Amino acid sequence: MTLKRILFWVVVLPVSLFLLLQLYFLIQIIWWRSFNPDSTSFMRKQEAILQEKDPKFVLKHKWVDYSKISRNLKRAVIASEDDGFSDHEGVDWDAMQKAFEKNKKKGKVVSGGSTITQQLAKNLFLSGERSYYRKGQELIITFMLEMCMDKERIFEIYLNSVEWGIGVFGAEAAARHYYGISAAALSPSQAARLAVMLPKPRYYDKNTGSAYLQRRSEIILRRMNSSELPTR
Is the alpha carbon torsion for 69, 73, 161, 84 positive or negative? Predict the structure, then answer.
């Protein structure tokens, strides 16, 4: 095999495929500036897993406009997940450094230090695996989202697509699943509880009486009024 062929297979082709993949992601993101995504990569994966047990299973998910989601929930999610969301450019570098040090100590990737935008990037396009390659791709998509969308639109898509329980996705489905009400009607205490569930939604779906969930919810309830909501 000639040097030119080796360079093609080892360098040119992989780089070209990588750039094409980034272009695909960018086109999708530009489209979602004006049109709502029907589902995400993570939603489809979870649905496939659940349908292996029950072929008739259908995810609980309903899109609602940003204005129809309680401000209580918006403030609670920011307080719990990413209190610098309105100010940073997609990445909290201090949180990532702490996560890197934690991963180094553990000898594996156990923490990501992800912002809301990073979580959305992962949910929209990527698998749930933990690796530094996936983290790198997540960062690229994160910067695309921040470049193409305003914070309010990023937050709107996040609130409508994030996992909130076993087969439960988005604020509207979560509010109806846990409280039998719309996302617009969530009280401060209900919103705080939902926000605290986000890191481990399937666990808390099965363990709604968790003492930690109650304690953490009370902390978020006290903090959420100082949360800064994004504006267009």
Answer: positive
Dist. CA 70–CA 56, nearest whole Å: 32
The whole-number pLDDT of residue 181 equals: 98
The pair of three-digit structure tokens given for residue 159, joined into one six-digit string: 């609130």
- Rounded to whole angstroms, the Cα distance separating 51 from 47 reads 6
How is residue 60 written in tokens?
């609980």
174-183 pLDDT, tens digit each: 999 999 999 9
pLDDT given for residue 104 in this prediction: 59
Could you tell me if 157 and 151 are in contact, meaning their C-beta atoms sit under 8 angstroms apart? no
Torsion of CA 65, 70, 73, 74, to 10 degrees: 60
More confident residue, 213 or 231: 213
pTM for the model stands at: 0.90
Strand partners for 60: 168
